[in-house]
Amino acid sequence: MKLIVEKRSSRASDLSILFVSLFSVLVALIILGLIILSLKKNPIEAYIELVSWPFGTVAGVVQTLIAMMPLLFTSLGLLIAFKMKLWNIGAEGQFYMGAFAATWGALFVFDHISNPWLMVPLLMILGMGSGAGWAAISGLMRAYLGVNEILSTLMLNYIAIHWVDYLVYGPWKGAQSHNFPITATFPKAAILPQYGANGLNLGIFFALITSIFVYYLLKWTRLGYEIEIAGDNIRAAEYSGINVKRTIVIVMAISGAISGLGGMMEMSGVLFRLQPNFSPGYGYTAIIIAWLARLNPFIAIIVSFFFGGLLVGTQQIQLFLQIPFSLINVFQGLVLFALLSGEIFLRYRIKVVRT
Amino acid sequence: MKKLFVVLVLLLVSIFTFASSLKVAFIYVGPVGDAGWTYAHDLGRRQAEKVFDGKVKITYIESVPEGAEAISVLKSLANRGFKLIFTTSFSYMEQTAQVAKQFPNVIFENCSGYLKSKNMGNYFGRIYQSEFLVGIVAGTMTKAGKIGYVAAYPIPEVVRGINAFTLGVRTVNPRATVHVVWVNSWYDPPTEKEAALSLINAGCDVIKSETDSAAPLQAAEQNHVYAIGYNTDMRKFAPTHFLTSAIFNWGSFYTKTIKEVFDGTWKSESFWGGLETGIVDIAPMTDLVSPQTQRLVKAMKEALENHTFHVFDGPIYDQKGRIAIPAGRTASDKDLLSMNWFVQGVIGSVPK
Question: If you average pLDDT over residues B87-109, what whole number do you get?
Fold first, then answer.
């Protein structure tokens, strides 16, 4: 008996991708169940809590939608860059910069504007501009200096996070915060309309529109065509007369703009004030979401919804089964691990051969 | 027919009893196993759970990040029938107020914050009184005259504690200094330990911790300097160098509040109890502390309980030696709640 691993010749079909993804989640759930069992708690109850609230009730679905909003924005941003094989892993930093710019606008620049119809678009422009600028730095360095964008985007994340820390611990500390690192609350005009007690806001609506925009951009525009060619083969793109350097910068800027818009929406829609560590790593989870969605902006909606629900569902497990916080981290890691290892089955065929 | 009726009645009764049992939740900023702040709250929760044995359903959730996730957790609880929610950190104040506005039928209690509304109260203990008492112990034990203080955030709650501690130190050791290092986190054991080590390296021979974990005490034990804890009796983390601890006993407050909500007599208030209520105290002093000092601390404790003496009775000088609270006056609660200056003897600064 011998195990042979061979590369699949054809691309995996959509059905098999779906099947492997579902199977991976199942495996993660079974391992989670075993761990919960070892804590002498009922795993069935845990499964029910994990799913029933975030996906099965109106209030829970609203919470899931709110949790998925930043994930969808950042994954859409990444997906455009990944399409061109530009490995932007700086969505976290671009998200922070968007939140920073929105806070700057809402509290210090446009604070005298009381009309939300003027204020919100201005903040959106600021959020997008700041995210775009931040990502464009990496784009420019990649295009004209040959600096690896994986490293530059990652390092810019830390700078963005520390920049926000500096502001919130220092000059932007709110007068009412009694020295606690948190800014003042946004003025009314800078807050997105909230629907119902659960705070459903327009952010998710904008995120869905962005998905359509990204789809349109990739599918029907000249830029989308250039991205596709350059993503396949940069040389070929150059020979066919595409200005690849310019395209790199533009694509990075658009990618950052979308993540930055997400940061602005999180501020204006959910948090209303800037504070350190306001993102539990949305920009990193987005890398996995973009990948699982196979860089398809519509599938990204479904995957973000799933990950948003996972966030809300794991809170329910903690609340009602009193499972330690660290186990929740283990579970989220397990899901990712299972999903990524499922990839092997899509790319390779494993055969048992008798010798 | 009769059978069906009985079943129906039983069903109704069971639904009624289920619906009438009060559901209470606690949101913790750190893990229950931090041995400090969150552990103290959890001890309080467990005490209340014992008192109401089955009549009240109590749950908790630990290590909730302070941003959108805190809001999400609060909404889950409010939506799922919880009628009383304790958020046990200043960091949750704004989020609690935000959700409280949207759920007027749910009662919220925020620990150590100042925002209050019809369905949101706040509560805290006058831990600065305990800080003063353990300060006396530190002042008698230091040989170098330098005491290290590991502090979380430069907010009034912490500044007040440092000041009270320093006043305690200086009642017995007028030339001793208290050196402050900010960790800028409630719970970050590696950084807390680093802070303690840097203070020890700077020559401090007593370490006072104010952050949520016991890491500074462990650092003190390893480096053979005295250790004073916070939140709970932390003697097991520094078995040979532990002196005492400024501690919280949240149990009686939690029991009282849950009972009030249960009976429908709850009213929004700002509760700030002192030593006389038992919500704050000091842990039993170890044998390292001399009997004379122990007697002095007990006498001062009695004076604080009887209000014959207040920690912030003037004259009190600020770091520059200017008079901050004149003789014959005492700081008001309003002054205490917004305190952002250090008393004489503190080495360090409050970022402005």
Answer: 93
